[in-house]
Amino acid sequence: MQVVLDYLKRNQARFVAELCEYLRFPSVSAQPQHKKDLRACAGWLVNHARQIGLEARLCPTAGHPIVVAKTPRAPGPRKPHFMIYGHYDVQPPEPLDLWKSPPFTPRIQGRSIYARGSTDNKGQNFAHFKAVEAYLKTGTPLPCDLTFVIEGEEEVGSANLAKFLKSHRRELACDAVVVSDTGMPSPKHPALTYSLRGIIAFEITVHGPSRDLHSGVFGGAVENPAMALARLLAQVRDASGRVTIPGFYDGIAPLSAYERKQFARLPIKDRDLQKLLGVKKLFGERGFTPTEQRSARPTFEINGLTSGYQGQGSKTIVPAWARAKITCRLVPNQRPAKIRELVCRHIEKICPPTVRLEIEAGHGAEAYLVSPQSREAQAALRALKAAFGCQPVLMREGGSIPIVNDFKKILRADSLLLGLGLPDDNAHSPNEKFNLDCFAKGQAMSAHLWQELSRI
Ligand code: BES
Ligand code: MN
């Protein structure tokens, strides 16, 4: 084991240079013009995996390809088998003018590497590749078999991965899935995340007149679709952010006293959060702390809002339409299909008769919750402690990784969420970064993890 850790230490500079190569691909899954870049990024990863001694292949899907890479299987008794899941696709980098350096030209400053996808998720999944490289290149036997599944559609809802899991059930059957695609409160608080929120996405369009109209000539006698949409959306939450849609909170389990105590132990203070996010004041559902609000309570959020003239100067029109991109985050016991139904019915009900409403459904996923008491979870906590040199924390997080539910349903495998991101990493924001100490410690964590997990 020491030779593995020494190898990791000795090779950090090269690893960082390789991560830069990985980060140079603009693998933006949401934008059709980047289809080739996703393919190229996946191809690079397959090649890289082969170079470090893995058996790797590129698996085409109806969307972006999936990379599968396996440690060479030795003959003999069956070893435990773990899957490492991650994604090579990234969020759109816009708005570009807010980046201090171009999003796909990695830049190192201090102990951070800046680029879109650095923390979410290339840097995090690359840490696992480097740990496995250390085993393979030092000739240290791995106590288990490993299969990497790195997809290219996580940021758009993983539409084609479930089908792939079903058609490769045998090959991918495993004892647990390891996912580093979440965060930790600070480098001194490595974390095991035991719950994620679910999600439903949709777009609401409000149609008014058949074309943009002169607002002086016709304004006043027709409903303005932007106004109608704004009024409609404003009614969906109350003043403290509680969703007013009937039935939205039905069946949600209250937070246990134990959980609330764990939340309260996390090191992030309200003041620091306010400062980090640059808001005047925090905001959220009464009766819950900000940590609870953003990880264990459901939400209704506008992600994008468009209508009328967006260019320079003014243009006096009543726009023909207005559109909002919406996602709701869900918590355990909220069924995505049921909540989608409730939300649509309510919006239809409160929509005024002067406009035509169109709701287009998007992706959806259930929330995720596993026991932090399982033997696998305990093994993961030991690996975190060994790598980071301090006591790990247990937490729930507010983001979503849709596919972890399918790992459970299709492969019957739980996911261990061992995130390496920091709260100020700017995931999905301009100037995304990844901390190089988290990168190095993540590799060590991975190296320890295979020992710990295989021992149980
Ligand atoms: N890595 C995130 C998920 C995440 C981030 C979980 C922080 C917990 C803490 C992942 O890449 C992501 O952003 N997922 C999307 C999924 C969606 C597009 C279906 C999300 O949560 O918005
Ligand atoms: Mn993401």
Detail the poorly predicted runs.
none
Bound molecules: ligand BES, manganese (II) ion
CA radius of gyration: 23 Å
Binned strand content? 15-25%
**Percent in helix:** 25-40%
| Overall pLDDT metric | 97
Main sheet overview: 6 strands, mixed
List the total number of helices: 14
User: Which structural class best describes the helix and strand composition?
Assistant: alpha+beta
Morphology: globular
Number of strands: 18
Would you mind describing this structure in some detail?
The structure is a single chain. The chain is an alpha+beta fold. It has helices at residues 2-10, 12-23, 35-51, 118-137, 161-167, 169-172, 225-234, 257-265, 270-277, 290-293, 336-350, 375-388, 403-411, 436-455; strands at 55-59, 66-70, 81-87, 107-109, 112-114, 145-151, 176-179, 191-196, 198-207, 213-214, 299-307, 317-318, 321-330, 356-365, 368-369, 393-397, 415-417, 433-435. Strands 1-2-6-3-7-17 form a six-stranded mixed β-sheet. Helix 2 (12-23) packs across helix 4 (118-137), helix 4 packs across helix 14 and helix 12 (375-388) crosses helix 14 (436-455). It is globular and about 80 Å long. The two termini are 18 Å apart. Bound molecules: ligand BES and manganese (II) ion.
